[in-house]
Amino acid sequence: MSVSVKSDREIALMREACRVIAKVHEELGRELKPGMTTLDVDRKAEEMIRSYGCTPNFKNYNGFPGSVCVSINDEVVHGIPDKKHIIREGDIVSLDMGCIYKGYHSDAARTHAVGEISKDAALLIERTRRSFFEGIRYARSGCHLHEISNAISDYCESFGYGVVRDLVGHGVGAALHEDPQVPNFHQKSRGIRLKEGMTLAIEPMVNIGTWQVEWMDNNWTVITCDSSLSAHYENTVLITDGKPEILTLTEEEHAQMAEMSDEIWWR
């Protein structure tokens, strides 16, 4: 396994790709409303990405037809945009997408509430997001990769949630998927030692019920085996010699991070 360490030039290009996809996530999340189709969402996502001078990196990736994965309720990931798939009041909708800027990739995911959702659904979304931050306490030079995995898993499982094991995070950079794989579930080995300049897409996928999933007949969309709700939260992260740099946050999210800095980074 060869894990790339990015140069200053490569990091600068990734920062721009990540800045764009963070902005698109922010704008697209505000657009979600009952009555939209998942194809409507996809068309808006592609238009937004291209308006910033970038290319959607999911479109036609290994044959995937859309620019964004739109996954609803018990769909974990890789929901294919479809004019017949309608978003309804009370749904939770996961958007997973990235873009390419001058040959370098970004990757990020968010789960959104559409209108009023159940308390259990709201807690799942928030705890999935928080599990990411539990994990990246260890996303720094000198730590081991699986310290991230174990922290995510321990936090989610403390609530009785199932952490998906069939899908993992990954390295990202000149390719959308690079080494190493980044599991979200508990590992026995320590994994590689992290180095400054590595870039990782860390993405907890968490179910209210069982961790077990299955693939739909389209061979893309992954759903929970027990039809329970699933949430997804992902950012592209730069490993540094101190606190990691989360590249796919908006300015508002960065400000929120600053306010809760001590809570996030204390260990």
Written overview of the protein:
The chain is an alpha+beta fold. The protein has six helices and 17 strands. The mean pLDDT is 96.
**In angstroms, what separates the terminal alpha carbons?**
30 Å
Helix content: 25-40%
Work out the strand percent: 15-25%
Give the rounded overall mean pLDDT.
96
- Provide a count of the helices: 6
Q: Quick one: how many beta strands?
A: 17
Q: Over all CA atoms, what is the radius of gyration?
A: 17 Å
Poorly predicted sequence stretches spanning 5 or more consecutive residues:
none
Task: Categorize the overall geometry.
Answer: globular
Strand order of the largest sheet: 10-9-11-16-17
Care to give the gist of this entry?
With 267 residues, this protein is α+β, with helices and mostly antiparallel strands.
